[in-house]
């Protein structure tokens, strides 16, 4: 992985938003039923907010500056790489973090679809 990508991920970890810091307190060190989450993790060409490799789950937090079209393209790409993606608004994390954590746990406990379907342009 390019050093530039790793450096950017490291900078993002140091500059986490309030919502990211709040959620990280619940996800770090296996606190969610022993599931290991990573924060600001490179999934080239993107850096995702949080991911659990074991569950194949990406958790993205969206603030007011997010673009729905860009987020949809990012989600489609991540799904094409075998990730399940769940998104929450920053405000939801800050106001009801326990509800968000319960929803994340629900996603980690569901089996992923297997095999991962091909993106539409690669199908039959």
UniProtKB/TrEMBL annotation:
The keyword Nuclease applies. It comes from the Bacteria. Residues 6-106 form the DUF559 domain. Keywords: Endonuclease, Hydrolase, Nuclease. It holds the Pfam family DUF559. GO terms for molecular function: endonuclease activity. Signal peptide: none annotated. This is Endonuclease domain-containing protein. It comes from Pseudoxanthomonas mexicana.
């Amino acid at each position: 992985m390019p050093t530039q990508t790793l450096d950017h991920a490291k900078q993002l970890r140091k500059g986490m938003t309030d919502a990211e810091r709040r959620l990280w307190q619940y996800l770090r060190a296996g606190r969610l039923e022993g599931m290991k989450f990573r924060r600001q993790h490179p999934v080239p060409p993107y850096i995702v907010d949080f991911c659990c490799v074991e569950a194949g789950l990406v958790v993205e937090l969206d603030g007011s500056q997010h673009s729905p079209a860009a987020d949809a393209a990012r989600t489609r790409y991540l799904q094409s790489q075998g990730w399940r993606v769940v998104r929450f608004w920053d405000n939801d994390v800050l106001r009801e973090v326990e509800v968000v954590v319960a929803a994340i746990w629900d996603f980690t406990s569901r089996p992923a679809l297997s095999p991962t379907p091909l993106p539409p342009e690669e199908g039959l």
